[in-house]
Structures are given as structure tokens and as C-alpha cells.
Amino acid sequence: SDTQVVYGHAIYIDENDQPLSADHGYQTTKVYLGEQRTFQQNIKYWCTVYQIPQPTVFMRKTILDQFGLLDEQYKFIFDYAYFLNLMKNQIEFRLIDRIQAFYRIHSSSKTSGFESFYPELYNYSRPHWGNQSRGRFIETAYSFFKAHTARLRSYYMNTGGKVDFFAYVRFIGRESWVLLQIISGRGNPELHYKNLVKEHMRKYD
Fold first, then answer.
1. 3-class DSSP state for residue 205?
2. Rg of the chain (C-alpha set)
3. pLDDT tens for residues 116-155?
4. Are 124 and 200 in contact (CB under 8 A)?
5. DSSP code of 158?
6. Which residues have CB under 8 Å from 42's CB, separation 6+?
7. 49: closest CA among 60, 34, 59, 63?
């Protein structure tokens, strides 16, 4: 009787109801495992995947009465922002440890490409980074740079060793520019990163 929100696991399916692998940005998986993480963990979204499968969530009407409806300023992350607002307010999510839903991915789906979420994720998270102490903020920026450097390096390593040295130097330079944007609080480094990934994926496709 004291449970306010429940969630479970989901299976990704395609247009033909067949299981498929979905790219979370750092791993490919057919099962969307539900796992609640802390608010501070979630705003460092580049280090992890957000693991509250939206179709599996059920909540009491009192939650909506207290916290309102979705924020329509967002096109991609309105459920993410809503759930994180609940977490900030100490609302407990209880896991039902079983498959609760199918999660359909198709060519015209907004969730078909994880990179589409990056600009809005950055805009949502930026104010929370700024409220940290200077030391924590630098640590946040460093973890971002480290995670994305490793991710882009993996794209180069998957090219069979045919790496353009000068292109790699440009990549390091552009990623350094992303880090400076984070530290200064200016620009949108996630949008920059999104375009950088697309450029190199086309080059080595």
C-alpha cells in the first residue's frame, strides 16, 4: 500500500514484432533491463544508460496530482526528466523483476537513434553540474571527456587498423574543445559530439 511507482524489464522489438538489438550508446542489447540509479548517477548519463523502461512504469494518481504532467519543452527526454524529478523528491521506484512490456523500435521512431537525445540531456543536466563545487564540476567534465574519448577511439579501432593519423589528431583536438565547452558552461558539447560521431561513422561505414 505504500508503493508509489513500479517498473520492470522490457524486450526490444521491430516493426514485425521480432526481437532486435538496440544501441544504448555504449552497449547493444535486446533486453532493456530496469534498474533505478541515483539522481547524481543519472545526470552523468555518458557513463551509464538510463534504465527505467518507460512502457513498464505504473504510478499512483497521487504522483500526477503532486508533480503534474510531462514537460512539453522536451521532444525526446520528457519521461527521463519526469522520473528524475521524482527521484530528486525521494520517490521510490520498486522493481518488478520480470518482462513487463515490449519496447518497439522502428525507422521513424524518435528512439531509433540514441544520439538524438544528447542535446536535450545536456541542457537538462547542465544546471545540476553547475551547482556542484568546483572540484566536483571538474571531475564531471573529466569523466565526460574520458568516456567519450574511449567511445570514439573504439570507432577508430574497429576500422581494421586503417586509422588516419591526422584525422585522429583532429579528433583529439575537437574532443578537447568539447571539454572546454563543459568547463566554461558555454555552447552545447553534446550536439558537437553527436555531429562528430555521425561524421566518423559515415567515414568508416
1. coil
2. 18
3. 677 788 778 877 775 555 566 677 777 777 776 676 666 5
4. no
5. T
6. 48, 50, 80, 84, 87
7. 34
pLDDT tens-digit profile of 32-80? Answer: 888 888 888 788 776 666 688 999 999 999 999 999 999 999 988 899 8
Please state whether beta strands 5-13 and 31-32 pair in parallel, antiparallel, or not at all (unpaired): antiparallel
Residue 22 phi, psi (nearest 5): -115, 140
**Cβ(81)–Cβ(121) below 8 Å:** no
Task: Give the separation between CA 149 and CA 134, rounded to whole angstroms.
Answer: 22
Calculate the CA 124 to chain-centre distance: 11
d(CA 60, CA 54): 15
Strands (E), the chain: 5-13, 22-23, 28-29, 31-32, 58-59, 93-104
Cell of 76: 525526446
Q: How many CB atoms lie within 10 A of CB 101?
A: 18
Length of the chain: 205
| Burial zone of 32 (CB within 10 Å; 0-12 exposed, 13-18 middle, 19+ buried) | buried
Q: Note whether 18 and 8 are within 8 A (CB).
A: no
CA dist 83 and 70 (Å) reads 10
This prediction's pTM: 0.69
Question: Which DSSP string corresponds to 102-153?
Answer: EEE--TT-GGG-GGGGHHHHHHHHHHHHHTS-HHHHHHHHHHHHHHHHHHHH
- The sign of the dihedral angle between the CA atoms of 46, 49, 54, 57 is negative
